[in-house]
Amino acid sequence: MIEIFGISSQALFGQLLIGLINGAFYAMLSLGLAVIFGMLNIINFCHGALYMIGAFVAWMLLNWLGIGYWWALLISPIITGALGVVIERLFLQRLRDLDHLYGLLLTFGLALILEGVFRQNFGASGLPYRIPPELTGGTNLGFMFLPNYRAWVIVLSLFVCLGTWFAIEYTRLGSYLRAATENPALVQAFGVNVSRMITLTYGFGVALAAIAGVLAAPIYQVSPLMGSNIIIVVFAVVVIGGMGSILGSIVTGFGLGIAEGLTKVFYPEASSTVIFVIMAIVLLIRPSGLFGKGA
């Protein structure tokens, strides 16, 4: 067995794999937050709860209707995204002209309500969700064993993140979205329904969280607390990458996941705080974040 800095290669690459998986979820969740903040200027504190709902919808589809993982990857984001549209129309739409603090407080309250409802009905312990048969097993790479499902999570999350970035940066719809963040009145003058665009953008950001929830279900189990356990770290990722920066969310999400994994190898005691230490250092040097507009 090869050793690197006195640590077995199997342990090192194993933690790097865990870091990449965590980074995949950080990237997808922070991407949804960045899309919502960039368009609506709302710090969506219920994002973690909607990520949890995405996982629960997949669990319900499997256990109540017999609908498996592959269809859940399509149906769960649609259902959860529709819930996001309802939330935006009923609540957030009324706060568009108010201070950001009102949106933060509202979404924080919604997160507590949603988490409480699921905790009351399903308990606090995790519910198992099986890996689809096509993705069971793994591949022996020689220096480590790579589970097929974890490789799938990394590949799909990269595809979704890069596809979202490309759509926002290089398509006509993306140009409308970016223009509407700068001058919504001008975009409205060109015949674009900005209000509908904002609503659909929020639903899309929520759908990204739901995809992450479905991907996470077989790895972390389905629990009402799964959103609250990750959302603080995801906010740190968004702040480090730059609020509203799509590329910053993707790069920072995967990068911090790897940094967290390496810290678990070389200094395990700091693994739970390393992201926040990095956040403090970045904010001291670049207050707008690594990819922020003022960087």
What does this structure look like?
The structure is a single chain. The chain has helices spanning 9-40, 47-65, 69-90, 100-122, 148-170, 172-182, 184-189, 194-220, 226-241, 246-266, 274-285; strands spanning 3-4, 7-8, 138-140, 145-147. The strands form 2 sheets. Strands 1-2 form a two-stranded antiparallel sheet. The chain has one domain (3-285): ABC transporter involved in vitamin B12 uptake, BtuC (Orthogonal Bundle). The longest helix has 32 residues, at 9-40. Helix 1 (9-40) runs antiparallel to helix 8 (194-220) and helix 9 (226-241) crosses helix 10 (246-266). The chain is built from 11 helices and 4 strands, in the order E-E-H-H-H-H-E-E-H-H-H-H-H-H-H.
Present the secondary structure layout:
Elements: E1 3-4, E2 7-8, H1 9-40, H2 47-65, H3 69-90, H4 100-122, E3 138-140, E4 145-147, H5 148-170, H6 172-182, H7 184-189, H8 194-220, H9 226-241, H10 246-266, H11 274-285
Antiparallel strand pairs: 1-2, 3-4
Helix pairs in contact: 1-5, 1-8, 1-9, 1-10, 2-3, 2-4, 2-8, 2-9, 3-8, 5-6, 5-8, 9-10, 9-11
Quote the distance from N terminus to C terminus.
Answer: 44 Å
Report mean pLDDT, rounded to a whole number. Answer: 87
Write the H/E string, N to C.
EEHHHHEEHHHHHHH
The radius of gyration over CA amounts to 19 Å
